[in-house]
Design brief:
alpha/beta, 10 helices, about 220 residues
Length: about 220
C-alpha cells in the first residue's frame, strides 16, 4: 500500500472560485440537487456539479499511466467503482486493447449518457454492495467516489473493493485536506462529500478495512 499521485496535475488545471459557491448561490439547494445524481449534476449549471461532463480525451494519459504502473495487459478484467459516464474505462480499452472493462455507478443518468461503445459494460449500483463474485477483477479503481459515502457505507465499500479484486492491484482517489485552508476550501466547494478526512485518517480507514491497494488524494489549494 502506498500513495501514488496520478491525478493532481489534472485536478489543478481547473480554476475554482471557492467563495462564490457559498456567497452567490444557495449552497444547500445546490447540494440537494447534486445528490440526485441526475442531469443537473452532470450536465447542468456549474453550481450544481460538473457544468457539463463531456468526453474530451483527458483521461487517456491517466489510463496509460495506470496501465503501465499496474502492468495491465489484454485479457485483464478492470472494474471502475463510481465510473460516471465511463470515460476512463473507454480509455483503458484504447490504452490496452483486449482488456475487459466493467463500470458501476449510482447514477442511471450517467450510464444512459455514457459513450456508446462502453454502455454495455456499465451497470447501476452502490459501492457498498458490489454485485460481483470474490476476486472477479485483476484491477479495481475508484476515483472521486468514496468520499461521497457516510462512514456506515464507507467501510463496507472499501471492504467490497478489496473483496472483488485480486491481489494488490487497486487504486482509490478521494478528496482530502492537509491544512485548515484546504479544509475550508473543500467545505466551500464540495456538493456531495460526506466523509471529510485528512490523508492520515483515510489511511486509517484503509488499514481498518483490510485494503491492500494504493491510494491518492486531491486537495483544494
Amino acid at each position: 500500500m502506498a500513495r501514488v499521485d496520478f491525478i493532481n496535475h489534472m485536478h489543478n488545471r481547473t480554476p475554482r472560485n471557492y467563495v462564490q459557491r457559498v456567497v452567490e448561490f444557495d449552497k444547500a439547494e445546490c447540494a440537494t440537487v447534486a445528490k440526485r445524481w441526475g442531469a443537473e449534476y452532470w450536465d447542468g449549471e456549474r453550481r450544481f456539479g460538473y457544468g457539463g461532463y463531456r468526453y474530451d480525451g483527458r483521461w487517456l494519459p491517466l489510463a496509460r499511466q495506470l496501465a503501465r504502473h499496474y502492468g495491465l495487459k489484454a485479457g485483464d478484467r478492470i472494474l471502475d467503482v463510481g465510473c460516471g459516464k465511463g470515460f476512463l474505462l473507454h480509455e483503458f480499452t484504447v490504452a490496452v486493447p483486449g482488456v475487459i472493462v466493467t463500470g458501476l455507478d449510482i447514477s442511471q443518468y450517467a450510464i444512459d449518457h455514457a459513450k456508446e461503445e462502453i454502455k454495455p459494460c456499465l451497470r447501476q449500483g452502490h459501492a457498498a454492495r458490489l454485485p460481483f463474485a470474490d476476486g472477479s477483477f485483476d484491477f479495481v479503481c475508484s476515483l472521486g467516489t468514496l468520499h461521497n459515502l457516510p462512514c456506515f457505507e464507507l467501510e463496507p465499500a472499501i471492504r467490497e473493493i478489496e473483496r472483488v479484486g485480486r491481489g494488490e492491484r487497486k487504486y482509490l482517489m478521494v478528496e482530502s485536506y492537509r491544512t485548515e485552508r484546504e479544509k475550508a476550501n473543500l467545505l466551500y466547494w464540495q456538493l456531495t462529500c460526506e466523509s471529510f478526512h485528512s490523508p492520515e485518517a483515510w489511511v486509517w480507514w484503509y488499514q481498518r478495512c483490510g485494503y491492500r491497494g494504493d491510494w491518492d488524494f486531491i486537495f483544494f489549494e
